[in-house]
Every structure is written in structure tokens, then in C-alpha cells.
Automatic annotation (TrEMBL):
Residues 237-406, 679-859 form the Peptidase M16 C-terminal domain. It comes from Acetobacter indonesiensis. Belongs to the peptidase M16 family. Pfam families: Peptidase_M16, Peptidase_M16_C. Keywords: Hydrolase, Metalloprotease, Protease. Residues 83-228 form the Peptidase M16 N-terminal domain. The lineage of its organism: Bacteria, Pseudomonadati, Pseudomonadota, Alphaproteobacteria, Acetobacterales. This is Peptidase. Residues 1-16 have a biased composition (Low complexity). InterPro entries: Metalloenz_LuxS/M16, MPP/UQCRC_Complex, Pept_M16_N, Peptidase_M16_C. GO terms for molecular function: metal ion binding. The keyword Protease applies. The keyword Hydrolase applies. It comes from the Bacteria.
């Protein structure tokens, strides 16, 4: 994030931030580099730009949800800025309060102060202690979290729209009366230090930390927002209170509210909640004026399966006048039609791309190319330098600049398709870019010229100021196996007493309402067997299509040809029988549309271009070229990458988990090797595609600004000629026996913290109604986070861990249970004892009435939130089809939760969960078992 500060709990993933990652993290995650890290830039940051120059663009180019004219805004007498944006996608609301302060204002020697205070904002305030806050969070059933950046600290809640007054009350109490006791800080310090250990175990974090210290030397951005263990050891509640009193004020905050709300009454509610909080005189802010560094070189060992050659350059911040130009330059450099990406089809890199990571006052750009483990990094680095130097001297193609501008403007239209995503983009525009609305960026993008892009490239891509880095993969040590634990452990833990909510929260949240049915989508089956699901929603003039061909590589790949699926999937990006790779990408750019083909496929397009977009998607999905030259390159690249993967700690960790619970020679244990990959021929690819891609195993979900009739007509026209050949294959993996206890440690030289999984198979099938009782019980055990038993006993009370969770998982024929946490090596055993004891307690006694009530409220009130983005709606339907469950399964679950008793939950845990059979797998330093 520079946060690294997902400190607060959340009931379910915040739909706009799967880890709150920007385009940089997306690029690096895609390359395998940023696994486990997050950056501070809110989602959609790529779609924004600084204050526009020139005349305003036609209003048709600015989505209503992003236009100043379409929102209610006010500044209260105390200085609080409020922006209210209606969105009728679902009966859901998101509040996002942005305090205009971050780590840049931390006291000297205490770089993590803003981050530590963010943690303490969840430790209680006057009129709302930490236990009440946790209980309210559970009853809301929504998502709540926070992040800390150099410039802004954000707190965001998503819940049912009717619960908006509760969300506002929470934020008002935290703004004006935070408790900040030494006792609470001493407990939270253990958790935040575990977070530091987690991030220091990520080579990507360590790389970005070094990069930032060089690029922003001598400025407040020099130190990462995370903080350090030594600084936290010196920190006390008095220091945190001083920071809070200086900066947490209504006149230093922007409150964004989006969702299914009445703007007029909402503003009245805001005034009632925040109006009496006094404004403050704010301190002078530190200046951020970085000086371009001289060339530096970094080398870093990693636990990644492949290596990376990278070049980083100083670039403008988000408030800079030339930010829009820099953003377009970034898009062009990262384009799949660009010279940098072309290193991949040429066989010179396993992956290549460019990304822009802007902070408020400064930023950097990062070019990267991946090379196989053991390969010569200098050659990859030379190729990378060569491409960038040519661009610096000769510029970029004008048509790529125009394509990037079209895509940036068009992509703004998709912002309304997520309630929380809409809040994020408004927060980004106002808090990070000093704009009046996200729509202000349209004119800035339109004003960008190829000449301006080339001038900026010539200035920025200067090797004299580049930070060069080579990240070299190291192999894991051999996993160390051992016997299981067995026997009963004891862990003293006195259950907390029931939490009495404040009167205002009790009145709003105590009543458990009987669930109502969710309207079903339009469902039809095309003559060729494709199942089409349509959910119309007219919150934006866009349509999204998501599809899946049900496949099972473990059963469908021929013996000795493991890896043929990966090769086949990779070749979809190399064009069709009508358009080669570049021509196909140009056709998408011209619409513009965002498309992916393969076993999982998708399309995002503006409403008027839906038919064109679906035609291109079908062309790619049904008529891929699979060119021989590309096949040769892709096969070699995948074989080289797999050689490193098989020795990487991450892969060995996943393999150890599977090996611990599956019988020998289970199909799911099959894995590709360099030999099996290189044995695959192009004919093997063609045969695999012809047999594994079938319309009668395909589901397509269309959501957005469309009618069912129009969606069916367009999809049938594009996909109707696709025919299935031969009998439908059985893709269900065989059932597995119940697993037994074991333990294994996968060494990881890059980690200072251990990653721990306790897991086992369970005999319950996905169609068994006991599944609902296990899910309800898991909300008590590990799903409710701050209010859950695991979170209470492993983090809040003891500080053993930073995160802990548990989950049940099912396929059509298999089930498993997993409990996971991250801990320092000396705390691994202590955390396991506490976790297993909590699991045993679920079997020995029913949940308390208070716990059961919290769990029911959390699950029942969360159901509408699962439909607060078009992506989530499509994902839910595809998941149900994959599990062969009815589309109204969510309603059946709600009825089961509503009627469940504590005895029902206890009985399900006693019947299906086996604490003595849990396997323990650890990745990292040798633990204290």
C-alpha cells in the first residue's frame, strides 16, 4: 500500500478491493511477484487523472455516477466534506471516510505511527468499546476494513443500506473520542508486529521498500507506511494520541457515501452524526519534493519460481499537471500491442510489462521482464533496456496513444457496477487527486497528444536515473515431514461475557429478520446446450459477460502430457483464424472492449458495442489460431517456468497440503514437469481443445444494461453454431477417504514468519444440509473475525498472530476443512493449541445464544452484499452451477440459518470435524511445533 495495513477485520472481501490493489499490484501479481502484498492505490486509480485542462467534454462521456451534477455534496460548518452518490445496484451502502493524513506526517523515528493509529481505531472509543464495535460489525454482516498510505488513511464499511445510521455513528464516535489506552496498544502491538513479519517475508515487499527508499530519498515518502518492529516497540499510547489529536478532525476528512440511499435524508443523517464535532487547527504538512536519484542497482533473492529483471523510474504524482500524460504513457508501455510485451511472443521473456505507481505528490514507473530460474538475467535486462531506450529516442505509435485514451475514458463507465468500487473511485479523485469529481478526468485524457507522451517518455525513461533490480529465485529446502500430534491439548481460555450493545445499535440491529427470497435471474438453455443466465441491471451503460467451460485437467489430460491444458490456455492470446495476435487486440482497442478467452472467459463492453464485443469473444473462444510458432515459444516458456515452480516454496507448500489429505496417486496430485510439457505436440493441443471445450459444459452469465431477449439473441448468434461431439465426459473427481494427522515443514529462506495450515478432508457432500450448520458454526469460530473465537483467542487476547481464519470447501464430490494463520516460529505451537481448543469447544458445547445470534445476523445481513457488484453476481451463479446446486441455494441457506439452534451447530461439528486428524503444514522457518 504502501499500506500494508489491512488491520481491521472484514466479514467478507470488500468487493472493490480484492486486496486493494492498483494496476501495479495487478501486473506484479500476474507475474507472480507481488503475492501477499498490497499497494495503497485504490482500485480504479488507473482511470483517474489530475485537474483537466481545456474545455469540458460532452456530458455523454462522463458517467452519471461520476459527474458532480449527479451527486449531493456539502461541507459542514466544522469542515467535513461530504459526497453522496446514489447507486441502485443492490440495497447496499458503502461509507468511505478519508483522513487526509498518512505516514508522510509521522514523527521522526516512528514511521508506522499512522498505521498503528489505524489499528487502534478498531480498539474502541467513548460510547463504543472494542467488544461492542466487534459485535456490531458482526451483526452488520458487511465488510469493514481500513488502509494506510503515505498521504491518506481510509476507513470503509459496506453494509445493508438500512444500516447507514449505524455506520455513520461508528465513524463519528471514532473521529471524536478514540480510547487509545496503553493496555489496548500493548495487545495490538503484538498483532501489528506479526503484520510486519508477514510483509518482511515477502520478497516483493522488501524490493518495493528498497525501491521507495532510493526513489524518494530525503522526503517523507522515503519510509514505507508499514512501520518497523523497533519503532513499534518505542511507540506508546501517548504518541498515538498526539498524532490523533493533530490530524483526525472533520476539517481534515472527506466522507464518501455510495449506494441505494436517499441523498437528502442521508445528508441529514450525516449532519446529525458529525455536526457537533469541533474542527481543529491543522499542523503544517511536510513537503514532498523528491530529486531524481542517480542510477542504483538492487539484487534480491526470492522464493519465486522465476526471476525478474526490473527498471524503475521516477514519475509524476497524482496531483501533477502531467499525470494524465504519464498515465497514458504507462498504458501504452504496458499494451499487449507494445514493444515491451512483444518480448514474450519473441521468446525473450516469460512475462513483460510496465506499470505506474503514483502517490499523491510523486510516483514511479516500473518495467519488468521475467526469466527462467537459472537463466542469464543480464540478457533479459539488456532486452528490457533496449526496448525502453528505443522508445525514449523514437517515441511510441500514435494509434496506441489514441487507443489508451479511448480505453481510459470508456473504463470510467464501469465504475457504477460496484457499490464499494464507486466509493473508492470518488475517494481517489477527491482525497488523492484534489479533484471535484472523477468525471473531471475525461477532458485531461482527451487533451493528451502523442507528442506530449513522447516528450514525457524521453524525459522519464532516462537510464541515468533508473533503479535496476534483479530478483533471483532460490529453491526451497526439502520439506520435512513428521507424524501427527494426537492426544488432547489444553489451552486455558475463559469465554467472554455477552456484549451489551449501545442503545442506538441495539435498536437498529438486535432484531433478526426472517429472510426474503432473492429474485431469480432469467435462465435458458441454447439448442447446443449452453446455459445462459441473464441478470439485467441498468446502473451504467455497460454489459459484462462471464463464462466458464466446466473442465477437469486432472481427469482430461492424457498420461504423460501433463501441462497440455496450460499450453492450450496460453495460446488463446495469440489470435484467431481471422485475426492474428496484434490485429485481434487492435479490434478490441477500437471498440473498446476488455476480453479474455479460455476455459474461463469474460467480456466487458459499453452497451452499444455488446454485439461487436460478443462476436470477437466468440471468434477467440471458438476459432483460436494456435499458431505453430507461438506454440513452440509458449511450450518452452512454460517448461522453463515449471522447472522453477517445482522447486519453489509456494508450490511445495501447496503440494504438501494436498499430499497430507489425499491418497497416493489421486488424480489431483498429478503435476506437469518440464519433460511432460516438452512432450506435448501441437496436435495434442488441438485434440485437447476439441475434447475439453464443449457447449454442453458451458455456462454464460450476462449482467448489466441488457434485456434477457437481447442477450440471448446476441449470444445465440455468436455461439449457436458451436456443437458438442461425442458423449459428455464425467468430470467428477473420485471421492476420497478421511485423512489422518501428519505434519510437514516447507523451508522458505525468504520468510521470517511462518504460514500455517491445519487441514483435513471431511465426509460431508455439498448437497447435505449439514453444510449450512457448518457454515453457521464457522462464523462463530473463524468467520466473524474480531467477534470470532479464533480471532479473539489468537490475536486480540494473545497477539500470537496477525490474521487467522477457517473455512469449509467443497467440490461436487469432495469436502475439506482448513484453518490457517501466520505467526512467528516461536508462536506457531501456541497458536495451534489455542486454535484446536477452540475447535474442540465447538464440539463439546453449543455456541452461546449471543454467539449464535451474532453469527445468524452476520450471515443473513450479508446476503444482499454478495450482490453489490455485477462481478459478484456472475461469480455467485457460476459457483452454484459448478457445484451442481440450484440457483436459489442462497435462499435455502438463509432459511436454514434462521431456524438453526445451537444444538444443530454443535451436532454438525461433532459429526463431521475431527480435531485429532488435522494435518499441520508450515511454510517458513523451522517452527516451535
Amino acid at each position: 500500500m504502501t499500506v500494508h495495513a489491512s488491520s481491521a477485520p472484514h466479514q467478507q472481501s470488500h468487493s472493490s478491493r480484492t486486496g486493494a490493489k492498483n494496476r501495479l499490484s495487478g501486473l506484479l501479481l500476474g507475474a507472480g511477484l507481488l503475492a501477499g502484498t498490497a499497494l495503497s492505490v485504490p482500485v480504479y486509480a488507473q482511470q483517474t487523472a489530475p485537474q483537466p485542462s481545456g474545455p469540458s467534454m460532452p456530458s455523454a462521456l462522463v458517467p452519471a455516477a461520476l459527474s458532480s451534477a449527479q451527486v449531493v455534496r456539502a461541507t459542514l460548518p466544522n469542515g467535513l466534506r461530504v459526497v453522496i452518490v446514489p447507486n441502485r445496484l443492490a440495497p447496499v451502502v458503502t461509507t468511505e471516510i478519508n483522513y487526509l493524513v498518512g505516514s508522510a506526517e509521522a514523527p521522526a523515528g516512528f514511521p508506522g505511527t499512522a498505521h498503528a493509529l489505524e489499528h487502534m481505531m478498531f480498539r474502541g472509543s467513548k460510547g463504543l468499546d472494542k467488544d461492542q464495535l466487534a459485535a456490531i460489525g458482526s451483526r452488520l454482516g458487511g465488510s469493514y476494513n481500513a488502509d494506510t498510505t503515505e498521504d491518506v488513511t481510509q476507513y470503509f464499511y459496506t453494509a445493508q443500506a438500512r444500516d447507514l445510521p449505524v455506520l455513520l455513528k461508528i465513524e463519528a464516535l471514532r473521529m471524536n473520542g478514540l480510547t487509545l489506552s496503553d493496555a489496548d496498544w500493548s495487545k495490538e502491538r503484538g498483532a501489528i508486529e506479526q503484520e510486519v513479519s508477514r510483509d518482511l517475508s515477502s520478497p516483493a515487499y522488501r524490493y518495493l521498500e528498497q525501491l521507495q527508499s532510493i526513489l524518494f530519498a530525503g522526503t517523507p515518502y522515503e519510509k514505507d507506511a508499514l512501520g518497523t518492529r523497533p519503532s513499534f516497540e518505542k511507540t506508546n499510547a501517548a504518541l498515538l494520541r498526539g498524532f490523533y489529536e493533530k490530524w483526525y478532525a472533520p476539517n481534515n476528512a472527506i466522507l464518501i457515501i455510495t449506494g441505494d440511499i436517499n441523498p437528502v435524508t442521508t445528508l441529514d443523517q450525516v449532519k446529525e452524526a458529525f455536526g457537533n464535532i469541533p474542527r481543529k487547527t491543522l499542523p503544517e504538512r511536510h513537503k514532498v519534493t523528491p530529486v531524481a536519484p542517480t542510477a542504483h542497482t538492487i539484487t534480491l533473492p526470492t522464493d519465486y519460481p522465476v526471476g525478474f529483471a526490473t527498471l524503475a523510474f521516477p514519475m509524476p504524482g497524482r496531483t501533477a499537471q502531467d499525470f494524465a500524460t504519464a498515465d497514458i504513457l504507462s498504458d501504452v508501455l504496458g499494451s499487449q500491442r507494445g514493444a515491451l510485451y512483444d518480448l514474450v511472443p519473441q521468446g525473450k521473456a516469460l512475462f513483460a510489462g510496465f506499470e505506474y505507481a503514483p502517490k499523491k505528490e510523486a510516483g514511479f514507473g516500473l518495467a519488468l521482464a521475467a526469466f527462467p530460474k537459472g537463466a542469464d538475467s543480464s540478457k533479459t535486462m539488456a532486452d528490457l533496456r533496449g526496448v525502453l531506450e528505443k522508445i525514449r529516442k523514437e517515441g511510441v505509435p500514435a494509434d496506441l496513444v489514441e487507443a489508451a485514451k479511448r480505453r481510459e475514458v470508456a473504463q470510467l463507465q464501469f465504475s457504477a457496477n460496484s457499490v464499494s468500487g464507486l466509493a473508492a473511485i470518488w475517494s481517489n479523485a477527491l482525497a488523492f487527486q484534489n479533484l471535484e469529481s472523477p468525471g473531471d478526468v475525461v477532458a485531461a485524457y482527451q487533451a493528451v497528444t502523442p507528442e506530449a507522451v513522447n516528450k514525457l517518455a524521453a524525459s522519464l525513461l532516462d537510464p541515468a536515473h533508473a533503479v535496476t533490480a534483479v530478483l533471483t529465485p532460490e529453491s526451497s529446502g526439502k520439506p520435512v515431514a513428521g507424524k501427527g500430534f494426537g492426544g488432547a491439548e489444553s489451552f486455558a481460555s475463559t469465554p467472554d461475557k455477552p456484549v451489551k450493545l449501545p442503545d442506538w445499535a441495539e435498536k437498529a440491529l438486535a432484531q433478526l429478520e426472517k429472510p426474503t427470497a432473492t429474485p431469480l435471474p432469467d435462465v435458458s438453455v441454447l439448442p447446443n446446450g449452453i446455459k445462459l443466465i441473464v441478470w439485467p441491471s441498468h446502473v451504467s451503460h455497460t454489459v459484462q459477460l462471464t463464462g466458464e467451460v466446466r473442465q477437469q485437467a486432472a481427469l482430461q489430460e492424457p498420461a504423460g502430457k501433463e501441462g497440455v491444458e496450460d499450453i492450450t490456455e496460453s495460446l488463446f492470446s495469440y489470435g484467431t483464424t481471422t485475426h492474428d495476435r496484434l490485429a485481434f487486440q487492435k479490434a478490441l482497442d477500437d471498440i473498446p472492449a476488455w476480453e479474455d478467452a479460455g476455459g474461463n472467459f469474460s467480456l466487458q463492453v459499453l452497451t452499444p458495442d455488446f454485439e461487436k464485443g460478443v462476436a470477437l469473444l466468440a471468434e477467440n473462444e471458438l476459432h483460436p489460431a494456435f499458431p505453430d510458432k507461438a506454440f513452440q515459444v509458449v511450450r518452452m516458456q512454460l517448461a522453463q517456468a515449471q522447472a522453477g515452480t517445482l522447486m519453489s516454496p509456494g508450490h511445495l507448500f501447496g503440494k504438501a497440503i494436498q499430499t497430507a489429505i489425499l491418497p497416493a496417486k489421486d488424480p489431483a496430485l498429478r503435476e506437469a514437469t518440464p519433460v511432460s510439457i516438452m512432450s506435448v505436440t501441437r496436435d495434442d493441443v488441438l485434440h485437447y481443445y476439441q475434447t475439453a471445450w464443449r457447449p454442453d459444459l458451458t455456462t454464460i452469465v450476462v449482467t448489466g444494461d441488457i434485456t434477457p431477449e437481447k442477450a440471448r439473441a446476441v449470444v445465440e448468434k455468436a455461439f449457436g453454431d458451436w456443437k458438442a461431439e461425442g458423449p459428455k465426459p464425467d468430470l467428477n473427481l473420485p471421492k476420497v477417504p478421511l485423512s489422518k494427522a501428519s505434519r510437514a515443514n516447507v523451508p522458505d529462506k525468504s520468510s521470517v514468519q511462518d504460514e500455517v495450515v491445519l487441514t483435513e478432508t471431511i465426509g460431508l457432500q455439498v448437497s447435505d444440509p449439514d453444510r449450512y450448520m457448518l457454515r453457521l458454526g464457522n462464523e462463530v469460530l473463524g468467520g466473524g473475525l474480531f467477534s470470532s473465537r479464533l480471532y479473539r483467542d489468537l490475536r486480540v487476547k494473545t497477539g500470537y498472530v496477525y490474521t487467522v481464519g477457517s473455512s469449509f470447501n467443497w467440490s461436487r464430490t469432495r469436502g475439506s476443512y482448513a484453518l490457517d494463520y501466520g505467526a512467528d516460529p516461536d508462536k506457531v505451537g501456541k497458536a495451534r493449541l489455542a486454535a484446536v481448543q477452540d475447535l474442540r469447544t465447538m464440539q463439546s458445547a453449543p455456541p452461546t445464544e449471543d454467539e449464535l445470534s451474532l453469527a445468524k445476523a452476520s450471515l443473513l445481513r450479508s446476503l444482499p452484499l454478495r450482490r453489490a457488484s455485477l462481478r459478484a453476481i456472475a461469480g455467485e451463479y457460476l459457483s452454484l452451477i459448478n457445484l451442481d446446486l440450484p440457483l436459489d441455494d442462497t435462499d435455502k441457506a438463509a432459511e436454514a440459518y434462521y431456524k438453526a439452534s445451537g444444538a444443530d451447530v454443535q451436532a454438525a461439528f461433532k459429526k463431521w470435524v475431527r480435531p485429532d486428524d488435522l494435518a499441520q503444514i508450515v511454510k517458513g522457518p523451522t517452527p516451535n511445533w
